[in-house]
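During the no-cost extension, the postdoctoral fellow (Dr. R.K.) reprocessed legacy sequence entries with the updated structure-token encoder. One reprocessed record is reproduced below for audit purposes.
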Amino acid sequence: MSVSTHYDYLDLPCQAGQESFRSITRSYYRGAAGALLVYDITRRDTFNHLTTWLEDARQHASPNMAIMLIGNKTDLESKRKVSKEEGEQFARENGLVFLETSAKTAENVEEAFINTAKHIYTKIQSGEFDLSNESNGIKLGPQGQASQQAGRAGEQTGVSKCCQ
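Re-encoded structure tokens follow.
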């Protein structure tokens, strides 16, 4: 699993639990709209480090950052050391979105990114992210900028966005 990935216009740092990445990943949190916190279901130690990684993310990132907890390597079910229920419980207790994946078979990998993007989009719609501030990790493309400007013009003239 890579330290960081870029999905569309969203910066989503990915953590695999390796302590060697800890110092460099702190810089990835700044300006991130979302993060994928990944542990290996066949290695209990990666699950045990989640609290530290989550604290790191919350300390160095926007309080609005969408964090998805990923239990990886479902293709190795016979070697599982962390139950799905434990992952779900950790996610629930910490307000995270949860999914299990297999990077090897690609099971739920796309869904992990899509669900994270949907969670970020929900936060955008609720006003938790200021779209005019790129430090939130969200960069509007030309279409998005035109849409946002049209929305502001509608607010100023009293015309609703649906009627423009």
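The CA atoms of residues 74 and 85 lie 14 Å apart. The first helix runs from residue 22 to 29. The remaining legacy entries will be reprocessed before the final report is submitted.
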